[in-house]
Every structure is written in C-alpha cells, then in structure tokens.
Amino acid sequence: MKYDPIKRSLGKVFNRTPFLRIMFYKLLDILLLRSWHIRKELKKLTIEQGEILDAGSGFGQYVYRMSCYFKKVMILGVDVKKEQITDCNQFFTKIREEERIFFEYADLTKFRSKGRFSLILSVDVMEHIEEDCQVFDNFYHSLSDNGTLLISTPSDQGGSDAHDHEHDFDHVHGFIDEHVRDGYGIDDIKSKLNNAGFSSVNVAYSYGWPGKLSWKLSMKYPILLLGVSQVFFVLLPFYYLIVFPFCILLNYMDVMKSHDTGTGLIVVAKK
Length: 271
Hints:
By secondary structure, this protein is an alpha/beta fold. It is 44% helix and 18% strand.
C-alpha cells in the first residue's frame, strides 16, 4: 500500500486556500492519534530561544502546530521530498510566517548542525530509515545542551502492520510497505539513543487497544478503500460522520491511559 498517491490527492483538495489547509491540519490533529500524543508532550515544554527542527516535516502539520505553541522560536522543517518542501514554503509564505518558519531538503543520515536546536521532532520517520543509529547520532550533535528529542514511531508489537492481512484486502501485503523495519522494541531504541549520547531516555507505548481500534476505523480502512478507487472520496464524509465520535473517544482513552503494550512508541530523550 503506497501512501504518497493518496497524500497527493488529499493535498490537492485541501491546498486550494490557506484556510482550507489550516482546517485540514486541525482535522488531522483531532483524527490522528499520534498527533494527540505529540501535542501532549509538546505542551510540557517551554522553548523561548534557539530553533526547532521537524525532522521529516512532510505536509507541515506539526510545524504549524509548533508555530502556535512556540511563537517566538524559529522552526526548520526538513524532508527528502522536494515537492513537499516547495509546497510548505509556499503555504507558510501565504500566511506570512516565512521569516521564522522555513523548509529545506535534507537527508537525515547526513544532516547535522552542531548545537543548533532546542527541540527536534521526528514523527513516523525512523521506521523508514535503515541507518537509524547514524540519524540518532546526528540528532544528538544537532541539539543544544539540555535539548529535547521527541520521537513517534511504530513499536515491534505490530506497529508497522506488516503481518496484518485483513481478509477483505488479501491483495495487500502489509498495510505500509515503505517501512524498513517492523518497529522498535523499547530496549532497542533506548540502547541506540544511549549509544548516541543521550543520558535520559523515556519510552512509553502508544496505540494500546483503544488507539489501535481508532486507527483502523479512522485511517486504515478509509485509506485501503481509497487505494482501491478514488470514488470512495465521495463516501468519506458520510463514513466519518458515523465513526468520528467513536474515534475521538478512543483517542482520548489512549492518551489518558498507560499501556503495557501498544503498536506505537513515544520517545522523549534529553541531551
């Protein structure tokens, strides 16, 4: 299952005006459970100086959210997809934030800017990168003293959905086939971050049973259907009218609970 064609289709719909794009960001904040967990962690931080790096900025959702939380801080978004870099720079110019928010192409296995950032955010990126230890080392050296690294990534408890074959979609060999690993174990990612130099690493499961159910209802099944035919775009509003309230409740439960296991990890590491 390839995400990019569907992302581009959604982008064309919601990128017609800055207002629609901001509304899309806000809808994603409500719908995507990972966004709930990221916002929870960001609200714990006070950042008034230095810069912030969104490592794998994609469509710019989290850059926009951080720009609302940390209004005096410069934010850099980097990504390997040049079309998204151009798109994000154009959007943030339209909303007159180009002086403190900008995007550029970067390969995270090579990107390093010594002591530059107070916060590095990496959301659903590390599962795509084979040379993860090199990236963790780059993150460490790019953080200022007492800087924070915040990561959301799939766990090894089924986070990449690599072995999930729903009988209605037998042609799908794993929901996300761009991942280079099925997910991280807690001890595995802690060890790699400690080896990179981080002295304080806290890892918690996300996407427990409420989150896993919410993700299937809100993301997996709709995207699988859109992968079959874009005709399902017409049906999406009616589908979400039914499942949306249940997904919000499930997301809230997932964020408020601690989980003995889960298909996602939230990692907070301090330099």
